Structures are given as structure tokens and as C-alpha cells.
Amino acid sequence: MANLFSSFDPSTSFYIPLNWLSTILCLIFIPYSFWLIPNRSFSLWKKILSSLHKEFKTLLGPSSKGGTFIFISLFSLILYNNFLGLFPYIFTSTSHLVLTLTLALPLWLSFMIFGWINNTIHMLAHLVPQGTPPLLMPFMVCIETISNIIRPGTLAVRLAANMIAGHLLMTLLGNTGSSIPSSLIIVLLLTQILLLVLESAVAIIQSYVFAVLSSLYSSEVN
């Protein structure tokens, strides 16, 4: 199993693990002219960002004051790294809890600190759902507190686990290529293509889920 998981190993022959530089390679791959000269790719991306802006504005409310751009940037960063990991011999940074927790934990901490300092009564009331019987209130406070604490962990694990699962499936199918009859190579290739399409959809969905859940957590403290 060590060889199977070696694709997720961030170490290199250098003293500094340069694999993590793939997280910011978009600054190199996307030229500055892309943002200045209108083209089809830019128009499509602009429509996607506009739709995300409207949705995040609805979730955050009218008092967001530009907060939607934080979650749009978060979505773009995760989406780029998810797609980059689908290319051969490129490190998938979003498959590591080091990156996913680095994104989720500071956001959650900032939301909690802001909410408890500025909206203390609202945060306390949020621990007891409306209509809870008085006898169950102490248990509901414990349950809501635990569910609130594990939020950054669930965000991070969900993204990393989905990225790892898809890459492991593609690795397993790729390793079987040398052991199957030549008549089944076409079937294997078609399966790999379908799995790659599925992983592309998963990359988009997981980026969207991460950004939407983060925006929902932010809206709860306002």
C-alpha cells in the first residue's frame, strides 16, 4: 500500500518540499493579459463568478459588504488545485489535511471570535434550537457545541477524502493495465476516461460545497 499512496507524498529531493508550490502556480499559468483582453474563457469565467457572487450575497445577506469576494476566492483556489491534481505527475495539495485545515480552521475561528464578541446573545440562543423542550436543553447545548467545534474538521476531511478516493481509484485502474489481456485495454481506457470525467465533476462540486458551507457558517454569526 506504500506504493499506492506514494502519489500523495509531498517530499522532493530538495530540502524544501517544492510540491506545495503547485498551490500558487495559477499566478504563473494565467497571464496578466487574460484579465485584460476579453475572450471566451474570460467571459465564461466571468459568468461563473457573477453567479457565485449573487448566490453568496443571498446567503450572507445585504450586510455582507464585499464578503462574497472572500468565498469566491476560496472557491477559485480550491477548484484550481483540484483540477491541477488531475494532471499526471502533478502534486494534489487539496488531498492533504495540511492545506484543507489551513483553509477551514482560520475561517471558522474568525467567525466564532467575531460572533461571540459582537453577537453574544445571538450565539447563545443559537445553541438551543427553537421549540426545544426544557428537559432536553442541556443536551442540545452539548450537541450543538460539539457540532460547532467539529465544523472545520468536517470541512477539511470532506475535501481531502474525496480527492484521495478518486485518485486512488485512478491509480488502481492504471496499475492493472499491465496485467489484463490486450483485448480489454479499450475497456480500461474508456473506464479511465469516465472516471476522469467523474473526478472533474467531483472537483467542481467539492470546491462549491466548501465555499458554500463556509459562507453559511459566516451567515450564522451575523
Automatic annotation (TrEMBL):
CDD domains: ATP-synt_Fo_a_6 (cd00310)
InterPro entries: ATP_synth_F0_asu, ATP_synth_F0_asu_AS, ATP_synth_F0_asu_bact/mt, F0_ATP_A_sf
Role of this protein: Mitochondrial membrane ATP synthase (F(1)F(0) ATP synthase or Complex V) produces ATP from ADP in the presence of a proton gradient across the membrane which is generated by electron transport complexes of the respiratory chain. F-type ATPases consist of two structural domains, F(1) - containing the extramembraneous catalytic core and F(0) - containing the membrane proton channel, linked together by a central stalk and a peripheral stalk. During catalysis, ATP synthesis in the catalytic domain of F(1) is coupled via a rotary mechanism of the central stalk subunits to proton translocation.
The keyword Ion transport appears for this protein: yes
A GO MF label: proton-transporting ATP synthase activity, rotational mechanism
Subcellular locations according to the entry: Membrane; Mitochondrion inner membrane
GO cellular component, one term: mitochondrial inner membrane
Pfam families, per database record: ATP-synt_A
Key words of the record: ATP synthesis, CF(0), Hydrogen ion transport, Ion transport, Membrane, Mitochondrion, Transmembrane, Transmembrane helix, Transport
Subunit composition and interactions: F-type ATPases have 2 components, CF(1) - the catalytic core - and CF(0) - the membrane proton channel. CF(1) has five subunits: alpha(3), beta(3), gamma(1), delta(1), epsilon(1). CF(0) has three main subunits: a, b and c.
Topology class, membrane: Multi-pass membrane protein
Cited PANTHER family: ATP SYNTHASE SUBUNIT A
Name the UniProt record assigns to this protein: ATP synthase subunit a
